[in-house]
Amino acid sequence: MTTKIEKTDAEWRAELTPEQYEILRRKGTERAFTGEYNDMKDPGVYRCAGCGAELFRSEAKFDSGTGWPSFVEPAGLESVVTETDRSWGMARTEVMCAACGGHLGHVFPDGPGPTGQRFCINSCSLDLERS
């Protein structure tokens, strides 16, 4: 079971960069093709930029051509949580860090095998721990 991390808004603002705060805590999105990890091919573990929880592994990363880092699956079933996002006049599935609740991105059913999923994640929601 994932340990829940709870902080005040002031604590999050003090610990995160303005861009990380906007995305992780206010559910923003970075512009396509601008994120640090979009073209990254280095091996390692992608951790939550807010709390350090393990979210994705480099073996699950693929080039989706969308402009955001994309993964076929999270590091573990307990790594992320999802909920329906009805913003922008559409229904999407939002992906959040299971530990701190930070917004990561969205998951779509148009990814490659074996899962058929595309976890489309904001780079600034992530920190790569290279192996």
Fold and architecture overview:
The chain has 2 helices and 9 strands. The chain starts with 8 loop residues before the first helix and ends with a strand. Helix content is 11%, strand content 31%. A 6-stranded antiparallel sheet has the order 3-4-8-7-6-5. It has a single domain (9-130), classed as Peptide methionine sulfoxide reductase (Metal Binding Protein, Guanine Nucleotide Exchange Factor, Chain A, Beta Complex). It is mainly β and 131 residues long.
In short:
The chain is mostly beta strands.
Shape: globular
- Extract low-pLDDT stretches: none
Cα-atom Rg, whole angstroms?
14 Å
By DSSP, the count of extended strands is: 9
Could you say which structural class the secondary elements and strand pairing correspond to? mainly beta
Count of alpha and pi helical runs = 2
Domain tally? 1
CATH class: Mainly Beta
Please, what is the average pLDDT? Answer: 95
Instruction: Provide the spatial order of strands within the biggest beta sheet.
Output: 3-4-8-7-6-5
CATH superfamily: Peptide methionine sulfoxide reductase
Residues in helix, %: 10-25%
Spell out the helices and strands N to C.
HHEEEEEEEEE
Estimated share of beta-strand residues: 25-35%
Distance linking N and C termini? 25 Å
**Quick one: biggest sheet?**
6 strands, antiparallel
**Could you please say which CATH topology applies here?**
Metal Binding Protein, Guanine Nucleotide Exchange Factor, Chain A
The CATH architecture classification is Beta Complex
